[in-house]
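User: what does the whole thing look like in 3D?
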Amino acid sequence: MLYARLILMRLLKAVVVLFMIVIFNFFLIQMAPGDPAAILAGEAGATDQEFLRQLRERFGLDQPLYVQLWRYVSGIAMLDFGYSYRQQMPVLDLILARLPATLLLTGTAFVLSLALGILAGSMAAARVKKPSGSIIMALALIFYATPLFWVALMAVVLFSVYLDWLPAYGMYTVGAGLDGFALVLDVAKHLVLPATTLALFFMAIYTRMTRASMLEASQQDYVKTARAKGLSPRVIQRRHILRNALLPIITLAGLQAGQMVGGAILTETVFAWPGIGRLMYEALMQRDYNLLLGIFFFSAALVIVFNIITDLVYRLADPRIKEGS
Amino acid sequence: MSFFARFAQNRGALIGLIILMTIILMALFAPFLYPDSPWRMVQRPFLAPMEVDGFLLGTDTMGRDVAAGIMHGAWVSLLIGLVSTAVALIIGVPLGAIAGYYGGLIDDGLMRFTEFFQTIPNFALAIVLVAIMQPSVTSIVLAIAIVSWPPVARLVRAEFMSLRHREYVEAARLVGQTNRTIILRQILPNTLSPIIVLASLMVATAILLESALSFLGLGDPNVMSWGYMIGAARTVIRQAWWLSFFPGLAILLTVLALNLVGEGLDDALNPKLSRER
Amino acid sequence: MMMKTPLASAIAALALTSTFAIAEEPRSGGTINTIIQPEPPGLVLGMVQNAPTRVVAGNIYEGLLRYSTDLEPMPQLAESWDVSDDGLTWTFHLREGVLWHDGEPFTSADVVFSADVFHRELNPSARAVLQHVESIEATDDHTVVFTLSAPFGPFLLSFEAGTFTMVPKHLYEGTEFRDNEHNNHPIGTGAFKFENWDRGTVIQLVRNDDYYEDDLPYLDGINWHIIPDGASRAVAYENGTVDVLPNGTVENFDIPRLAAMDNTCITDEGHEYFSPFAMLWMNNREGPTADKRFRQAVMYAMDRDFAHSVLWNELGQVPLSAFGSNARFQHDGLEPYDHNPERARELLDEMGYDGEEVRLLPLPYGETWTRWAEAVQQNLREVGVNVRTQSTDVGGWNQRLSEWDYDMAFTFLYQYGDPALGITRSYLSDNIERGSPWNNVGGYENERVDELFNEAATAFPDEEREALYHEAQEILHEDVPVGWLMELGFPTIYRCDVKNLVTSGVGVNDGFKDAWLDR
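Assistant: Here's the predicted 3D structure for the full assembly of 1121 residues, as structure tokens:
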């Protein structure tokens, strides 16, 4: 019951934040130089004033700003995100068509980075004074300091061009007419490079964080007690230290999950992954306002959803937080 | 133990400091070692490193000296990293301090404001901001600052909340010091060490952010930065790996050095928490 | 010291060998994989006419005529045509037995609807031609008569599919054109039918089995891959995913490497109709650029041969003056503006240039253009011009040019074969109008040039036009209203076993109908 109320409260707050984000972004985008109609006209290859007038009228750009805002906000209230100027399709359709690709990419990268990061971090924590531990930490630091797009480019050159092991771009082999398991395998192959490069950076963060919080946890009294009781180091490591060290990682993971949509912009561009990160960048460059606002709305919504999930997971994982407190 | 002795105990931090000093020296001496503009087309394009004397790192797509670019770029990358961090601190520290010190409704309001900025994906917001303000050093610095202040505010707030009921603060209050004096004179000096550590990491992140923006073509076209060099070289990465390799390495080393120094500072400034060493 | 690119000579050699290829017997079958960059905003030609739309939709839709690489008209939907002696009445005889992709017959009613209703409402570039047209009539199901109000020299050059698309009357008449449901599933008469558009990934066309020319097309279909990153596009060719790279799909820096691959051919034919011409707008209204001597100094300061060889692989050519070499009536007796920094400095001294800041706006169309702006910026700085580059995206570029808020700006424009269609629009004073980056943005005004250009557009026959255009070119050459940067050479790179790919002056825009695979 308390969970239900908590979620309800969080959802209410989320709606308010989303509403603010819509308005903030609406005005932010209005400040961008260049009028969408002029860009569309330029894209159409030729312009005259008549053409511009037709476009503005069609998209309601000839209306005063407050009318445009009102139309937009009231549209969103009905889950109508408007019409993409450039792609001539409803924004919602465009986003929903691209969202699964982004979720697949970022989800894979997320799980990968979390799993490997925690593994590497706890290994490093168990080998504090040994060279192997130092090597793990040095690698983590290097991954952390390397520009993501640079790794992506290098990976394409190495694995796609020279070794020809993995496809360099796209999400599936076009025109192959695959289905069933063959299709899954094909997508999986395409997923390897982008997901790995995207995961590297976050993996480095989790590794460092896991190690730090495990070392901190190992100084705590309950661990000393467990040691005194004569439990094996391995059991202590896993049951007592790791479990408590996970808490800050959960917080970070929640933040990270929300931010992955933004981080995916670079990855999706380099690997031609048809997700919404890339769609966002294109929409911005084309001043496709409705589409851009729609993507902002969805990515903010994702952040909020992940925040709520994080809170819940945190409550489950932390023995100290009792219901009602 | 003195501050520096504690810092020097961390070998990584010392190495980081040496790398960082080298890069700073590079930035300072660039105008003397390479007095020509790094934009100047001085040799055949696509010279490999050391293929021709005097061109240690080769030339780029248009015959510009890569070494000159790296030297001059050090200045730009450091400047953007430092200034944007400073701006982020100017926004984040006061907000966090006020929220943490006063608590209650003020805290609630300010934290909602902070969360609001954290709800919009960072990199996406930075791209939009630079595109709107049009790429220039100023707009890039502002955009990076705007997306990176929320963690500062949260950190400072947390520190203030834990410090505001300390005895010496209560004492200051009893003596009748104003809130302003207490914030500035009593609490803030005690929060400096975590802020300094965070700031050193933020400079590193800012350099990475700038390079990512430049990679997407949103860099300032009038200054030669490392990010710009990688962005400009990415289309030719196949035939001229060195064009993106060296600036990439420069970024990696700088970011690495800043992180190492940050850790060292953490050890030196927070000896209680200093972990395994 | 310049890198020598053997590419241009390689292309010349290929042009010789290609004549032998025609003798082979074409084979049917196979699907071509190629690239479209950027993803087009839509596929209905006439509604959208940007380059990527033309490239894809030129294979779905057709116009009345095609044009050879010498810009001679060739039959397409019109089998033949004739003109009255006064140059006012043009009669087109349409091909019979042509079907739309949905099975309905194509008739003269479609032509009248497309020209008189659809394009008049939607299509600015067709409107520019249609203003010379008084009436369009169908005299029977397969004959259409255009009556002009005055002779219009380039009239016969205006019927290419991208400019004057034939759209199906039975699907569009009486509807709101832009909301028509068929916009997402275009119906044309071309050799290929629209099959599928997976946004962000691929556009697929399939063979039109009912195409009116026997045996054509030879291919079963075309897949246009959408890959936003330039480096990935090059990789797609290298690892064999795609067979054809239409002009502009890979960065110029990749071209020498790709061209050197096995089984790779390269041609710079197929852009004659557009003849893209790169220019540097200079604001004739205010600031240093308002001074003729400054603009001449810019021409002398720029090392255009450097750009030609380093940035453009020696494809295309450095232009002499305002008229490109593919344009009709080019005056080739003018003194070229060579790279001469000394002369540039003298001119700047003479005008008393005081180091006032001059803003340079690059064209946001990718790496080559950015590098080019950097080179020009450096050239100008070396003669003492205080340049500041303002980087921007397409939106910012559009706005700055439309509002005349710039000093110097890169652009490129199509020449469309005839000066009256593609060239004079940049210099005519009545084409100065705020709000568009495609008119006389520089703000050049010269009464004599206006007179000459207006007279030349409607003069008849050609000898008369030539004299007028030559005089105008002499004036422009002296005034330098804009900087003439480069006649761009856009190469198409393809596997040599793709035969007959470029058969017209618009290249792959309508080229796949004749292409076949020798595999």
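In plain terms: The two ends of chain C are 43 Å apart (CA to CA). Confidence is low (pLDDT under 50) at residues 1-5, 15-22 of chain C.
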